[in-house]
Write a structure and sequence with these properties.
The chain is an all-alpha fold and about 280 residues long. It has 17 helices and no strands. Helix 7 runs parallel beside helix 9.
Length: about 280
């Protein structure tokens, strides 16, 4: 089927709507407010360039003829916006999961993000495996990892099972983000173990203290208190541990001297002479 740029056709459709409704669309904001409505209308308008088909019919025919993936690839190669009309058909197409997984590894950031956004719309257990791989891939852009992280965090009980099955084989530097996903699945001793493990590595104490506090297992209280007592931590780390202990219903009785800690001085506005600059200025 002949390639037609639906994004360009929509642009022309909007221009015509503005021409016919100059007063209504006299401001950019007014047009922005109506873009969703205009697009919905556009999807169902018969267009001569599309041989009298609507954009929806054109996209559906691309899918039925097995040409929808080629259409998307051509758009990406030419920096053409892939419209929602096309995206709706991509996720319905046979072989969509495999095609989109391939896009994740294209040397094109737009392709990677589009693939992630469409994968999360597909009802396929393989998507979980794909997104777990995304989280442990150092080459993936942060915005793609964010899509994967949010998808897995909202997943069903298969997600922690899959992560726990592979986490020991993952480099330590990549285990943290998987543990953050696991922290969304409450009441599991294996997840609790990993949260404690990450805390004890002491590479990001505030994060894992906070996650233990939110995980809600009171068994973490004594672990957190012992960690604060035995490990050389800074003031920020101490505060996060104290907050976690209190969130779990415990009380932090351990006291430490942070008078020389730069974080403590900064947070409490203490200058080099040991005085609060604001207080000192008032005295003068």
């Amino acid at each position: 089927m002949k390639f037609e740029n639906l994004d360009k056709l929509f642009e022309l459709y909007v221009q015509e709507a503005v021409r016919k409704n100059k007063e209504k669309y006299s401001s950019h904001e007014a047009l922005e407010d109506d873009l969703g409505m205009l697009f919905n209308r556009f999807e169902n308008v018969r267009i001569k360039t599309l041989d009298g088909k609507t954009p929806k019919e054109y996209a559906a025919e691309l899918r039925e003829d097995g040409e929808i993936f080629d259409y998307v690839s051509k758009c990406l190669e030419n920096n053409i916006e892939v419209t929602d009309t096309i995206c709706d058909e991509v996720v319905r197409a046979e072989g969509a999961t495999e095609y989109l997984n391939g896009l994740l590894y294209e040397n094109n950031k737009d392709a990677k993000l589009l693939a992630a956004l469409l994968l999360k719309e597909i009802d396929d257990e393989e998507v979980e495996d794909i997104f777990i791989s995304v989280l442990t891939n150092d080459e993936m852009p942060d915005e793609v990892k964010t899509v994967a992280f949010e998808y897995l965090s909202d997943g069903d009980d298969c997600v922690p099972e899959k992560i726990l099955e592979i986490i020991n084989s993952v480099p330590e530097k990549n285990q943290g983000i998987l543990v953050e996903v696991l922290s969304n699945f409450k009441g599991r001793k294996d997840v609790f173990y990993w949260l404690v493990t990450m805390l004890q590595r002491a590479e990001d104490v505030p994060t894992y203290a906070g996650l233990l506090g939110r995980y809600g297992d009171p068994a973490a209280i004594d672990i957190l208190k012992s960690f604060a007592s035995e490990v050389d931590i800074n003031y920020v780390e101490f505060v996060e541990i104290r907050n976690a202990v209190e969130e779990l219903g415990g009380e932090m009785t351990e006291e430490k001297d942070f008078s020389d800690d730069p974080y403590y001085k900064y947070i409490n506005h203490i200058g080099e002479n040991g005085e609060n600059p604001e207080t000192a200025e008032t005295k003068n």
